[in-house]
Amino acid sequence: MTQHDVTDRPPVHALLADGTTVCIRPVRPGDHEQIQGLYEEMSPENLRLRFFSPCRGSARLSADRVCGPVGPGCRALLAETQGRVVGVGEYESGDEKDTAEVAIAVADGLHHRGVGTLIIEHLVSAARADGITAFTADALSENHEVLKLFADLGLRTERHFEGPEVRCTVILDQSDAYLTAVEERGRTADVASLRPLLRPRTVAVVGAGRTPGSVGRAILHQLHSGGYTGRLFAVNPGATAILGVPSYPSVPSLPRTPDLAVIATPAHAVPVVAEECGRAGVRALVVVSAGLDSGHAQALLTACRTYGMRLVGPNCLGISNTDPDLGLDATFAAGHPHPGTAGVAVQSGGVGIALLEGLSRLAIGVSSFASLGDKYDVSGNDMLQWWESDGRTDLALLHLESFGNPRAFSRTARRVTRRMPVLTVDAGRTEAGRKAAASHTAAAATRTMTRGALFTQAGITATRSVGELLETAALLHAQPLPAGSRVAIVTNAGGAGVLAADACAEAGLALPAPAPGLIDDLLAVLPEGAGVGNPVDATAAVTEQQLTECVERIMRYDGIDAVLVALVPTAVAAATGDDLVRAVTGAAGRRPKPVAVVRLEQGLSVELLPAAEGGSVPSYAEAQSAARALAHAAHRAAWLARPAGTMPHLDGVETERARTLVADHLAAHPDDAWLDPRTCAGLLTCYGIPQIPWAWAGTEDEAVMAADRLRGVDGRVVMKAHWPGLVHKSEQRAVRLDLRGDQQIRSAFRDLRTRFAGLMTGVVLQPLAARGTELFAGVVQDQVFGPLVLFGLGGTATEVLADHAARLAPLTDHDVHDLMTSPRCAPLLFGARGGGAVDLGGLEQLLLRLSRMAADLPQLAEADFNPVLATPDGVTVLDARIRLVPCRPQDPYLRRLR
User: What is this structure's pTM?
Assistant: First the structure.
């Protein structure tokens, strides 16, 4: 590794444990003076612990080494804040290429803030990319701080004591325990960094106008009228007070440095104001201004990173925190949000206003709200971690049009959704699939499918509209989760019951027939003429008492998980509409099962009706809305009931050999390219993926000899033409089937050579495969989401039938099960229609190994296995295509800001 290889890596910004921002970057020769100064400023005791001697000559020698020429297997990183170096770490491998000696130093006065741990995390990530599997470090046994640092990393650490010294060995495997430890450190730092933003003690609105009509004045009004309990200032050079709030000409002239500054100036002034805020010590910005060009945007973000300010926006509606002790409403929405327990984060201001109004109307209310706008910094991931820790939020609502780091978001969401429902609007569903798709995999992998995989694996409830989001939120807020998807429908009008039954069936809910005992119980309490099936038609003559007893008896029945009551107003005097609603709300809450009401005359799409003991029952204007909400609740209950998945150990995987093969191929083909058959087969062999026997032939005679070795069923073989870039062989008619004898082999070879003259470089021969189920498996590398594994029905019609499911790699055992059971063709795999089940264990292994290959090799742009032949005796790849692109590996779980 050369000095250039190390220092050309871009710097990244990350958060310390107290929420402050540091820059992590490679050491450069020009850093010598600062690094030497860092060592020289250490106390004698810290010098002794670092160098085993208090000699200050070690400072210069260490700075010389760290800033000097870099050899192979060496790397040095530093942490700096506002240009000051506050920590440095390095590793150097010796004769054993897979082990490196690591050392760390942190400036005096900055211990216990996570500087050393953050540098080590980045060194661990870099070392893994360099093929290093273990760190070693020597320390004095009394150096408790560095020993604790290694012990708390979340990595397996061994200690060997030798007199006053201890040698630590840290194994650099990326286990779930390590990722969990990194996440927890990241969550602590993230929440600390958001406190000045969401719990500010002082707020300044920059750009508040003196006359009505400006956005800044509207925000100042919201803060002032909303009862903000902290200090509030306006910044306007032409006023001493606005709306009764003291105003000052600039941020530096404020009598007290604000924690939060809300910037509502013209776009061109935003970077200047941000720089002033940073120099003054402001800790967070909300930029509502829109129209920043690329230069303004970069200057704004640079100021935030330089001075460690968290940023919401630009181009946003603002933020709020309804905690009564704070009363922060820094938005320009028309009204104040109702205090409550729902956390809301959106990118669209219009969607944000709709959600604030809807949640307030439903009396669910809002705990905190963030309009993320163009999302330069603070993201949905940040807000999830805030809500997880704030002690007030029990429901999270998201509207995200983009994801900065989906894999980190997924891990956070998986954790948070265990504690509270996380709901989202799946925006952008109609985006067309990739144009000019080069393979079946790329053609199938739409952005909609990728987002769906993220939401499903993370346990996020994905809805299709803002209305559906609020309808589902109402049910999850007001009612318990169902144990399953079995629903009983009760109605006082047969037609309404039919509509409800259709809606439930379309939503994937089950409508089981009542057991004989339940039928008898219901007939005993319902009016004469009632229909006791599912739906239960209680008739228009049902009274309040009868309906109450009917619902209660159904809820006591173990064969039902939820009750949907569809009511219509009638002229029958037995009970008014209000009486019947009261019957349902009175019965709700007495059993731990959800109840939903449908009132076709209801004006609003969803309301929450008061129920017994202070609870509430959701009431919907449409049966489809109620059924969708119940289906979402059932899916959430099923997700929570299933333990977290694991990634099974795979035998026979040769990752390093695969990486070498990929590197060699890309060195010979610097542009992206499809692998030739030999290289493709070699890569599959590295991951133990079963392939049908095959042979390569460049001439007619070679084809005959290869066919003699490969005679399959009845002595027949298959011949496939090959040339670089050929993907869809069947569409090009580049495949000849059912070939027998030498003459047919020669004739087929000559035909292909003639039709593809100037293109064909040879042919692949395979034995004719046995009969079985033709499947499709593949991977496409999404630049944002990472590798996506697809699975479904294969063969020549795979794109036409579009029977595919997808999950993001790396796959757990649960993900593999979901992939195998989600496509419409799944019953064929499990022996439907009297056929035997295919080798399910072999199919699981194929998908796990494909996932592992995709996770190991970021250069893998596409993999297309079609067909994959599945029989009761095994699973075999009959045709494989793989495309590689040059790509620098990036650790998706490394702590860094956007």
Answer: 0.89
